[in-house]
Design the sequence.
């Protein structure tokens, strides 16, 4: 995972677009990184210092070694920063949330740099820290949140599509996701006991990685929503299979295997809706 490699291997981070305003996200990220023990170099030509650290006008002015360049700039302003990052010998570029520049990312990769886009570096650090200390209780809580998100998505889609067959299909998907949530909550509350594990049981972080899927936004292209949702169902299938494998034979394991099978069916149903119902002309362009 690129994010983990960057955060674990490198300690010297330049934050381009760092602000001296405590209310700005870039200020908070500088503070967060410093608290986690990283050596931070704020880059802002209008500031003298930020959080007690000298602020530099550009990357080339930093005399110490910079390994990671964290970018808080508009997407269209990224390319010159990436070119400067390559020039100073940085190992990675990290574009914060909503900062996306595929051309600049490609150039960085061609130069051998690791690249992350559209993610908050501090949120990713927190997520990685949680993985190291992942327990069954934490994973179930995250899985429940995922089921709620899926339920809301399918409920919304049932109201947006025009075909009656698709409307009914999404209503059923929404109800099934709601049922998944209820089963997980029952297990979380200790109401399903046969084959249950302690809520404090440590869980391999690799299982929780199946929860990390691209975000689905309401204003996305309808086709992209279908494809991302299908990918999320596949990840859910693998999540529940992984959970089932760590449980002993019993009712809990059976339920998790049932959830895994249903999530795979959801993926197949979404693919059918995409090609046969909602977008019958897709293959023809």
Sequence:
């Amino acid at each position: 995972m690129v994010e983990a490699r960057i955060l674990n291997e490198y300690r010297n981070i330049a934050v381009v677009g760092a602000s001296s305003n405590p209310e700005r996200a870039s200020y908070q990220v500088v503070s967060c990184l410093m608290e986690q023990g990283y050596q931070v170099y704020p880059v802002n030509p209008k500031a003298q210092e930020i959080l007690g650290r000298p602020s530099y006008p550009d990357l080339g002015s930093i005399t110490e070694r910079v390994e990671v360049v964290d970018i808080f700039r508009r997407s269209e302003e990224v390319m010159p920063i990436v070119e400067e990052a390559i020039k100073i010998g940085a190992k990675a570029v990290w574009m914060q949330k909503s900062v996306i520049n595929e051309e600049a990312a490609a150039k960085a990769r061609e130069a051998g740099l690791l690249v992350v886009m559209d993610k908050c570096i501090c949120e990713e650090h927190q997520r990685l820290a949680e993985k190291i200390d992942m327990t069954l209780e934490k994973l179930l809580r995250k899985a429940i949140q995922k089921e709620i998100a899926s339920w809301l998505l399918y409920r919304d889609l049932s109201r947006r599509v025009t075909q009656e067959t698709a409307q009914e299909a999404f209503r059923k998907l929404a109800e099934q996701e709601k049922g998944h949530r209820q089963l997980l909550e029952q297990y979380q509350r200790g109401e399903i006991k046969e084959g249950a594990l302690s809520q404090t049981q440590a869980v391999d972080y690799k299982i929780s990685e199946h929860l990390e899927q691209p975000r689905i936004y309401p204003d996305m292209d309808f086709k992209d929503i279908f494809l991302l949702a299908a990918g999320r169902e596949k990840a859910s299938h693998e999540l529940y299979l992984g959970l089932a494998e760590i449980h002993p034979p019993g009712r809990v394991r059976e339920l998790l295997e049932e959830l895994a099978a249903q999530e795979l069916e959801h993926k197949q149903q979404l693919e059918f809706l995409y090609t046969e119902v909602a977008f019958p002309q897709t293959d023809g362009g």
User: Anything to note?
Assistant: The longest strand covers residues 12-16. Residues 251-278 form the longest helix (28 residues). Residues 2-127 form a domain with the Rossmann fold fold (CATH 3.40.50.720). The mean pLDDT is 89.
